[in-house]
Design brief:
Length: about 200
C-alpha cells in the first residue's frame, strides 16, 4: 500500500522545487552532489507537496459529498482527530488533536468527512488560530447546523526545536458558532466530553 497518492505530485513543480532545495543545501554549506544528498531535493520537493496538498482540496465539497437528511438534533462529536500541519512562520510542523462537534438541523454528514475537513485545512501553511476558524466555518457553511465547536490542542516545533525551546508547551485554540456560542450549557457539555 502506497503512503502517498501519486496524483498529488506535479513533476514540473517537483523539478522546480528541487532546484531551489539544491541551492538551499549549497547555501547551508553542504555539498549537494554528495551521495547522501543526491535525491534529497526531489524527496523534499515531494514532501512539501504532500504537506500542502490541502490547497488542492475544498472542505465544503467534501462535506457536501455526503449529506443525509436526518432529524437528529443532539450533539455529534468527533474527537481526537490526529492533526498534522505546517507553521507558516517557520515552515516547521505542528502536531496535535482536533475535536469537532456540531448540532444538526435536519442534515448530517458522514463522520469521516469531518476528519477529511480537518486534514484539508491542516495540509496548508497555517497558524493554529486560523485553522481552528476555517474548520468551524466550513462545517457551518456546508451543513448549516444549529452550531459548531472546534478545539485544537497542538505542539509546535517552532517552540520546541528553536526559539524558546519549551518541549512541553501545548497550544489550545477554540472556535464556536450558534448554540455552542450562545448556550453555556451546550458549550460546557462539549468541553467536558473532550477532556
Amino acid at each position: 500500500m502506497a503512503y502517498f497518492r501519486q496524483d498529488i505530485f506535479d513533476e514540473r513543480v517537483t523539478a522546480e522545487l528541487g532546484l531551489h532545495i539544491r541551492e538551499i543545501l549549497r547555501l547551508l554549506g553542504e555539498d549537494e552532489t554528495r551521495e547522501g544528498l543526491l535525491k534529497t531535493p526531489e524527496r523534499v520537493a515531494k514532501s512539501l507537496q504532500f504537506l500542502t496538498k490541502g490547497y488542492a482540496e475544498d472542505g465544503i465539497s467534501i462535506i457536501k459529498s455526503a449529506i443525509f437528511d436526518e432529524e437528529y438534533k443532539q450533539m455529534v462529536l468527533v474527537k481526537d482527530i490526529d492533526l498534522y500541519s505546517t507553521c507558516e512562520h517557520h515552515m516547521l510542523p505542528f502536531i496535535g488533536k482536533c475535536h469537532v462537534a456540531y448540532i444538526p438541523d435536519g442534515r448530517i454528514t458522514g463522520l469521516s468527512k469531518i476528519a477529511r475537513v480537518v486534514e484539508t485545512y491542516s495540509r496548508r501553511l497555517q497558524v493554529q488560530e486560523r485553522l481552528t476558524v476555517q474548520i468551524r466555518d466550513c462545517i457551518q457553511q456546508a451543513l448549516n447546523p444549529l452550531g459548531v465547536a472546534v478545539v485544537i490542542e497542538a505542539k509546535h516545533s517552532c517552540m520546541v526545536l528553536r526559539g524558546v525551546e519549551k518541549s512541553n508547551s501545548v497550544t489550545t485554540t477554540s472556535a464556536f458558532s450558534g448554540m455552542f456560542l450562545k448556550d453555556a450549557r451546550t458549550r460546557n457539555e462539549f468541553l467536558s466530553l473532550i477532556k
